[in-house]
C-alpha cells in the first residue's frame, strides 16, 4: 500500500492511505497512486507526489491553470474535460506539465504564446472545443503532438495558419472541419487549398471567391464552386480565361458588345450563371446553337442594347436546357426592343408567353421609346397583335391602295363612257373615231 502526503492549506499535513478517499476530497476527488481525479471542483491541499491530475465537469467560465500547478507542483499529465471553461489562464510559474488535455470545454481561442508557459509540454489536446481560429504565428516550443479536431473552425477567416502546420505534429489535421456557412462540415485543409489556388488563378483586377464546396454524389469528390466578380472593371470583351470551376461570373457595368467567346471559348462551358447587366450587347445571334444557351442557369442581359433576338433559336435551346424549368432564370428588361409586326408576335409567343416563369423581369421587357407611338415603353407582354401590326407604315400603304383603286375605277367609267360615245357617233355619222384612223 502506498502512502501519500497531503498538505492542507489551512491545517497541518495529514497522512492518509491513498486507496481511501480523503475527507476533504470525499465529495469530488478520488486519488490512486500518484493520480488524482476530481469532479466539478479543484482540491485545495498541496500534494507534491501527484503526477497525474484529471478534472471533469468544472462550471467556471474562467479557469486558472496556475492553481493546478500550485496544488500539484510536480504534475505532468493534466486533463481538464467536460466543463464550461471559456477562458483559460496559463500558469505563471515554471511547471512540469508534459501532457495537457483540454477537451469538451468551451474554449474559443488559443493565444499564440500559450506554449511559452509550459517549458516541458509535448502533447496538447484541444479537441471538442469551440476554437474558431488558430494563431498564424503560434509558438510551437517542443510540442510533438497537437490535436485540434471537432472545433468550430471559421473558414470565412484567413486560413493561412493551416499551411504553417506540421502534419506529423498536428496528427488530426485531416479531420479538421469547417464550422457553419459557407462550407459546413467540409475538410478545412481542402478549403484552405482551394482558396489559395484561387488567389493564384484569379484574373488580375477581378475578385474570385469560393462560394461553396459540394460533394459529387457519384465519386464523393469535393467540387469547388467559384464565383468571379469582374463588374465595373471597364472590360470591352468577355474574359478569355476563367479559374477552373468558375460557375458564376459577374460582368455588370462593363462595355462588352460581343458574346462570341460564349460560343467559341470552351472555358465558358462550365459556367452556370452570367450577369451582363448594363453592357453594350446589341445582338445574341452569336449564341445560336451554342452550348451556353442549352445549359445556362441564369443569364442576365438587363440594360443592354438589344432590339431583337432570334426567338426560334432561343426557344429551341431552352427546350433542350436540362435546368428547365426550375433553375433557369433569364433577364431581358431595360433593352430598346423594336416593336414591329415582324418581331413582336414571334417574340411574344415563343419567348415571353412560353417562358414567362423563367423571365424574371418580364414586365420590364418594353418597347423602345418612339415619340408619338402608342406602344412606346409599353410592356411587350401586354401588346395586342392588332396594336403592333397596325403601325404607321402599313397604315399609309392601305391609304395608297385605296387611292389607286379610286383612280382605276374612275378610269374604267371614263373608258366605258368614251366607248359608248364613239359607238353612238359612228352609228350616226359613219365616221370612225379619230384614234382608229391613226392605227395602222
Ligand atoms: C497503482 O499502483 C499499483 C502498484 O504500484 C498498481 O498495481 C495499480 O495498477 C496502480 N493503479 C493505477 C490506477 O495506476
Ligand atoms: C500521461 O499522458 C500520456 C499521453 O496521454 C501517457 O502516455 C502517459 O502514460 C501518461 N502518464 C501518466 C503518468 O499517466
Ligand atoms: C482568448 O482571448 C481572450 C480575449 O481576447 C483572452 O483573455 C484569453 O486569454 C484567450 N484565451 C486563450 C486560451 O488564449
Ligand atoms: C468529431 O467529428 C467527427 C466528424 O466531424 C465525428 O464523427 C465524431 O463523432 C466527433 N467526435 C466527437 C468525440 O464528437
Ligand atoms: C467568421 O469570420 C468572419 C470574418 O472574420 C466573420 O465575419 C464571421 O462573423 C465569423 N463567423 C463566425 C461564426 O464567427
Ligand atoms: C462585384 O464588385 C463590385 C465592384 O467592386 C461590387 O460593387 C459588387 O457588389 C460585387 N458583386 C458581387 C456579387 O460580389
Ligand atoms: C484546371 O483544369 C485543367 C483541366 O482539367 C487542368 O489541367 C489544370 O491543371 C487545372 N488548373 C488548376 C490550377 O487546377
Automatic annotation (TrEMBL):
<dbReference type="InterPro" id="IPR003591">
    <property type="entry name" value="Leu-rich_rpt_typical-subtyp"/>
</dbReference>
<protein>
    <recommendedName>
        <fullName>Protein singed wings 2</fullName>
    </recommendedName>
</protein>
<dbReference type="InterPro" id="IPR001611">
    <property type="entry name" value="Leu-rich_rpt"/>
</dbReference>
<keyword id="KW-0677">Repeat</keyword>
<dbReference type="InterPro" id="IPR050328">
    <property type="entry name" value="Dev_Immune_Receptor"/>
</dbReference>
<dbReference type="GO" id="GO:0005615">
    <property type="term" value="C:extracellular space"/>
</dbReference>
<dbReference type="GO" id="GO:0031012">
    <property type="term" value="C:extracellular matrix"/>
</dbReference>
<keyword id="KW-0433">Leucine-rich repeat</keyword>
<feature type="signal peptide">
    <location>
        <begin position="1"/>
        <end position="21"/>
    </location>
</feature>
<dbReference type="InterPro" id="IPR032675">
    <property type="entry name" value="LRR_dom_sf"/>
</dbReference>
<keyword id="KW-0732">Signal</keyword>
Amino acid at each position: 500500500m502506498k502512502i501519500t502526503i497531503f498538505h492542507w492549506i489551512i491545517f497541518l499535513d495529514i497522512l492518509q492511505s491513498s486507496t481511501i478517499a480523503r475527507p476533504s476530497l470525499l465529495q469530488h476527488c478520488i486519488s490512486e497512486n500518484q493520480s488524482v481525479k476530481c469532479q466539478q471542483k479543484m482540491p485545495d491541499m498541496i500534494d507534491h507526489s501527484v503526477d497525474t491530475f484529471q478534472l471533469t465537469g468544472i462550471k467556471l467560465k474562467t479557469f486558472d491553470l496556475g492553481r493546478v500547478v500550485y496544488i500539484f507542483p510536480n504534475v505532468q499529465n493534466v486533463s481538464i474535460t467536460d466543463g464550461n471553461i471559456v477562458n483559460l489562464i496559463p500558469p505563471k510559474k515554471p511547471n512540469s506539465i508534459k501532457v495537457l488535455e483540454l477537451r469538451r470545454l468551451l474554449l474559443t481561442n488559443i493565444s499564440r504564446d500559450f506554449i511559452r508557459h509550459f517549458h516541458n509540454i509535448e502533447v496538447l489536446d484541444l479537441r471538442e472545443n469551440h476554437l474558431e481560429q488558430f494563431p498564424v504565428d503560434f509558438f510551437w516550443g517542443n510540442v510533438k503532438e497537437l490535436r485540434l479536431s471537432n472545433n468550430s473552425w471559421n473558414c470565412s477567416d484567413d486560413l493561412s495558419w493551416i499551411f504553417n502546420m506540421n502534419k506529423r505534429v498536428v496528427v488530426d489535421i485531416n479531420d479538421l472541419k469547417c464550422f457553419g456557412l459557407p462550407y459546413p462540415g467540409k475538410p478545412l485543409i481542402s478549403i484552405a487549398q482551394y482558396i489559395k489556388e484561387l488567389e493564384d488563378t484569379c484574373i488580375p483586377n477581378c475578385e474570385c471567391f469560393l462560394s461553396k464546396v459540394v460533394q459529387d454524389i457519384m465519386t464523393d469528390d469535393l467540387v469547388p464552386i467559384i464565383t468571379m466578380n469582374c463588374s465595373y472593371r471597364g472590360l470591352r470583351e468577355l474574359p478569355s480565361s476563367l479559374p477552373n470551376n468558375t460557375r458564376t461570373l459577374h460582368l455588370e457595368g462593363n462595355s462588352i458588345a460581343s458574346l462570341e467567346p460564349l460560343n467559341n471559348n470552351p472555358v465558358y462551358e462550365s459556367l452556370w450563371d452570367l450577369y451582363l447587366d448594363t453592357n453594350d450587347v446589341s445582338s445574341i445571334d452569336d449564341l445560336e446553337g451554342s452550348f451556353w444557351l442549352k445549359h445556362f442557369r441564369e443569364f442576365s442581359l438587363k440594360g443592354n442594347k438589344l432590339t431583337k433576338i432570334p426567338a426560334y433559336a432561343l426557344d429551341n435551346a431552352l427546350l433542350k436546357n436540362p435546368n428547365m424549368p426550375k433553375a433557369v432564370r433569364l433577364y431581358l428588361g431595360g433593352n430598346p426592343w423594336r416593336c414591329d409586326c415582324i418581331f413582336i408576335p414571334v417574340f411574344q409567343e415563343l419567348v415571353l408567353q412560353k417562358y414567362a416563369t423563367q423571365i424574371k423581369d418580364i414586365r420590364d421587357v418594353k418597347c423602345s421609346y418612339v415619340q408619338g407611338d402608342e406602344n412606346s415603353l409599353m410592356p411587350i407582354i401586354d401588346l395586342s397583335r392588332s396594336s403592333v401590326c397596325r403601325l404607321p407604315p402599313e397604315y399609309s400603304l392601305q391609304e395608297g391602295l385605296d387611292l389607286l383603286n379610286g383612280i382605276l375605277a374612275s378610269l374604267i367609267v371614263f373608258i366605258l363612257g368614251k366607248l359608248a360615245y364613239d359607238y353612238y357617233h359612228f352609228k350616226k355619222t359613219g365616221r370612225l373615231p379619230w384614234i382608229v384612223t391613226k392605227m395602222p
